[in-house]
Design a protein that fits this description.
heterodimer, A: mainly alpha, MetI-like fold, two-stranded antiparallel sheet, 70% helix, globular
């Protein structure tokens, strides 16, 4: 304790600079953790967090008693797996291709266009999706109609939405991810390619034998970061685009939208809290497990 | 000699096929990324009659500024623009101040507890804090419901951006500090006089990331804002997409209800919302790229 005081007083000015940040973390990152207590209570606004009745695991029994928990857990993991499994390899390929372009102007322009969707909100993207897919005047149905093909009731077909959301996710994030990959790609020494060319390796072989193996660590890190959040749905994307469209819930409802509805629409804070706690626990378990797994398999790649 | 020539020929044709694929994929995907912008922008100038009867088109069949005119006549667009600008400016300024100072301390070699502080910053980033606790904190404990502070305070410190700046500060030569300390300068003075001026490129990056976060956010608004007069632009788009009574919403009840260009209204609102981003984008893009590059070489 004496050492603590000595350190604080020695670097007083520096800790003063950090104070607003520390205060923020305490209030906005750590105080909300008390909210998890609600999961074990029959929460009443009037009684408050510490005055409400303790009910043990009743809220969890309610959540796990219905099939909802299976649906939302499956959707969360399944959608995130699609986003990672298709989105990340696609972004890597994109980065490799961009890196191979020699026309500088074209390269910069293409990169700018591909990065642009990252900068707009899910709400704006929701409207773009609506402009493309809605049944009354959407663009894609007009095209289908014009080509003499049957129109599709996009917003009434839940089975199509995992694919649609994957495309939308790639639209928004492929540019972002490919820039991270590009940073790693530019670090690969040109000499390696030079000697491969002298040995007569084709462009495709160079990618296969040089680029991909060298990109493996950064790819695994990105994958691991994604897997660490596999139990966290993208609320902004799904609630922005799907909203309260009940028809699509069976394939699009994720843990985050479910707990949001329990909180804001049903008004059952205890129930919502139980769902959120379940999500946090699953998140921690996933991170610890995969961090351990990757440490065994790939000693060079570490998350923390 | 013949064999060498053959190999050379094969290599060339191989490269040609590969490069064709490269260009085809890049052009195609760039097109996919741009197309929705084109569709929305173009059709915001389409007459609503065409929009309703023939749907979204690739060209302007009947040019009309009705959607924009209707939007500008109402009160809501000015209110929402004001809210978004206020939240973005104030939020970005405060967040940048807090983040630059905090990251400086985390990066400073003299600070004994810098690693434990970094760890405590990192943990909420991976684990999340819990929706319900966060909701109760803002709504019940801080009483920020239906205030602009609810849209500002929760984003004041982004751990990812903290670490981007920490990486930036660490790359600065240590002699910078040493010469200042030799003169007996105080840490706070060193930070403001010496470190801040040379860190402007790094700080520019986090300013832009924060500005983008605030400009695009609707998550906080949907949680904590019920009054229309506190709706940011993103919430306005959302309301127009779900609200049946667009006239009432856009005008606060003062405009004629007949002939509401409801379809075009959404498009016009989207265009004025992303307008500033798209215009600034060519100038600021490089700072985002730099930020991502710095952030990915995690320290």
């Amino acid at each position: 304790m004496r050492a603590f005081y000595r350190e604080i007083s020695k670097n007083r000015s520096l800790y003063i600079l950090a104070l607003p940040g520390i205060l923020f973390l305490v209030v906005f990152a750590y105080l909300p953790l008390f909210g998890h207590i609600l999961a074990f209570e029959d929460f009443k606004m009037s009684a408050g967090l510490f005055g409400s009745k303790f009910v043990g695991f009743k809220n969890f029994e309610f959540f796990f008693g219905s099939n909802d928990w299976i649906t939302v857990t499956f959707n969360t993991v399944f959608l995130n797996t699609l986003f990672l499994g298709i989105g990340l390899p696609f972004s890597l390929v994109l980065a490799i291709f961009i890196n191979d372009i020699r026309l500088r102007g074209f390269k910069r322009l293409a990169q700018s266009f591909i990065f642009l969707p990252y900068f707009i909100s899910w709400q704006v993207i929701a409207l773009m999706v609506y402009a493309l897919l809605n049944s009354s005047n959407g663009f894609i149905n007009s095209v289908l109609l014009g080509a003499g093909l049957p129109v599709v009731n996009w917003y009434g077909s839940p089975g199509l939405w995992p694919s649609i959301l994957t495309v939308v996710n790639i639209f928004k994030y492929a540019g972002y991810n490919s820039i991270i990959f590009l940073a790693a790609l530019t670090g690969i020494s040109e000499e390696l390619y030079e000697s491969a060319r002298i040995d007569g390796a084709s462009r495709f072989q160079q990618v296969l034998k040089i680029t991909l193996p060298l990109m493996r660590p950064i790819f695994l890190i990105m994958l691991l970061l994604g897997i660490g959040r596999i139990f966290f749905g993208d609320f902004g994307m799904i609630y922005g685009i799907v909203g309260d469209n009940g028809v699509l819930l069976p394939t699009t409802d994720v843990i985050d939208t479910y707990s949001y509805r329990a909180l804001r629409q049903v008004g059952n804070l205890s129930m919502s809290s139980a769902v959120v706690l379940y999500q946090s626990v699953m998140g921690v378990v996933t991170i610890v497990f995969f961090n351990w797994l990757i440490k065994k398999a790939e000693p060079d790649v570490r998350l923390f | 000699m013949g064999a060498a020539a053959r190999v050379d020929y094969r290599r060339k044709s191989n490269g040609l096929v590969y490069m064709s694929v490269v260009y085809a994929v890049i052009i195609l995907f760039a097109f996919v990324c741009l197309f929705p912008f084109y569709l929305v922008l173009l059709n915001s100038f389409q007459s609503n009659k065409v929009l309703n009867q023939e749907g979204y088109l690739l060209y302007i069949k009947a040019f009309s500024l009705d959607s924009y005119a209707y939007l500008m006549e109402g009160k809501q667009v000015y209110v929402s623009y004001g809210v978004t600008i206020f939240v973005t400016v104030v939020g970005t300024a405060l967040a940048t101040a807090i983040t630059t100072m905090f990251a400086y301390v985390l990066a400073h070699k003299k600070v004994k507890y810098r690693n434990i502080m970094a760890f405590l910053t990192y943990i909420p980033m991976v684990m999340g804090t819990g929706l319900v606790g966060f909701y109760i904190l803002v709504a019940q404990w801080l009483h920020l419901k239906d205030t602009l502070w609810a849209l500002i305070l929760p984003y004041l410190l982004n751990p990812f951006l903290v670490f981007v700046l920490v990486n930036f500060y660490r790359a600065l030569p240590y002699e910078l500090y040493e010469s200042a300390y030799m003169d007996g300068a105080d840490d706070i003075l060193v930070f403001f006089r010496i470190i801040l001026p040379v860190s402007i490129p790094g700080i520019a990056t986090i300013i832009l990331f924060y500005a983008l976060t605030y400009w695009n956010d609707w998550w906080l608004a949907i949680l904590f804002i019920n009054h229309n007069e506190l709706h940011p632009l993103q919430m306005m788009i959302r309301s127009l997409m779900s609200q049946i009574n667009a006239a009432q919403y856009v005008s606060s009840g003062t405009l004629h209800v007949a002939n509401v260009p409801s379809e075009g209204l959404k498009l016009a609102t989207v265009c004025i919302t992303i307008g500033p981003i798209v215009f600034l984008y060519p100038f600021v893009q490089k700072y985002f790229v730099k930020g991502l590059t710095l952030g990915s070489v995690k320290g």
